[in-house]
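Q: Structure for this?
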Amino acid sequence: MAAPALASDTPAEQAAEWLAGLGVTDPAERERIRAGFEAWKAADPRHAQAAAPMERWLAALQPLQGAGARAARAALQAGEESTATHRRRSRARAAAGLAAAVVAALAVWAGVRDEWPQALVADLRTGAGEWRSQPLPDGSRLTLAAGSAVDLHFDGDQRTVRLLRGDILVDVARDPARPFVVRTRDGEVRALGTQFVVERGAESTRLAMIESATAVRSARQVARHADDAVRVQAGEQVRITPEGVTPLAPVDPQGLRTQWQQRQWVVLDRPLAEVLDELARRHPGHLGYDAAQIAGLRVSAVLPLDDPDRALALLQGSFPQLRVTRLTRFWVRVERAG
Amino acid sequence: MPTPAAPLGCAQDIGLLYRDHHGWLRGWLHRRLGCAHHAADVAQDTFVRLLAARDALPLLREPRAYLRTTAQRLLVDHARRQAVEDAWRAEVALLAEHGDLHYPAPEVALAALRALRELSDVLDRVAAKARAAFLLHYLDGLTHEAVAAELGVSDRMVRKYLAQVLVQCAALED
């Protein structure tokens, strides 16, 4: 491989290229690059000056390596999510403007790019419209809805699933020695043997219990080592935010199980906007609507969760007043006709 | 009534910018944040950031739009750093509880948090693949070849990604 220096680069760019080269696997080549780097630094004081802050910075990363890498990963991911959430909010504001179509189309691509880093560190992931049921080594089973990502950590002492994105159905095999823990940025759900659904939203995590019970703690409780976990029983539902755990309206465990088994969503008299939001989360591109236009419309339907386009067609069938505009397959807008 | 200020040509005009728009910016932030103290802090930080970048201060035809963007960027950065720190503390507490990790001594924790904040600042400025490559190599200890396989790119590209991240860290030093 050629030495990294290029005549057109600034000293900082050249220093970065040398330093990146020092990580090559082959020891002989690494030694050659190191010698080249030292010679380059000695050749001009500006070279050494450009390299020094980068070398210092790389050395300072040491506490984030090895045993510290896991916590660092989780923290950086939380940072990315924070930025993505703010971007989504400012996009929402921007979309209200006149250039909404253009902004939304750009936002789709920005949104797709935001998803990459989480997916790359995830052990299991599903794309849009793709569902996956995965048996785990301990006999538990994990079902991932479309567009979900999890990071698994299983060993002799623990069974941990970090939900990075989307919704999962968890079927926990009983093992009193190793609690089964689902974690998100918002908190953790701890179980011995049970079935439940965890949904990771932008602002909070939702837990719905199908069977048995779990102990739930918010991120703050976890950080404080608080042992006042909230017990959540079958048919109960809670919202978890980093600050706390709050009860939500009860769920129908049987209906929820069917939803996951058949991938059919039974909607009973829900606002159309809520239903569209749910479909938008599963849509591979951008699915937008004008909230004011569809205010007051309510839906009862059985919708396929793994095919958002067909679900949209079904909705349109029951609401002739809706018009669905497709700019491309990835940009869909729902409006009220006439 | 908002007073339309004259366009600003050069750095000295930051005093003018402050005089004409500081009150407005603070008011705007107050409405957004719902807290006068926080709004005053962020407004102050916005001008500090402009002063720090004064060589780069462009000709401002719409100074308020520029101030608003800068303030917004500050708020996003602040929220990101806070999220990073909170998540790190929660994760370390959890790992320590499981016995995977000893709870770090305060000075170690401080060094880790500082490194993490800088890393987060730097990664915020690069593309997703460069970010992924950097973390896989420098944090997880994967070889260039393994990173290349993970990301579906060449070894050469991995080195390019790593260099892209490293060059950004130069901008951290004030």
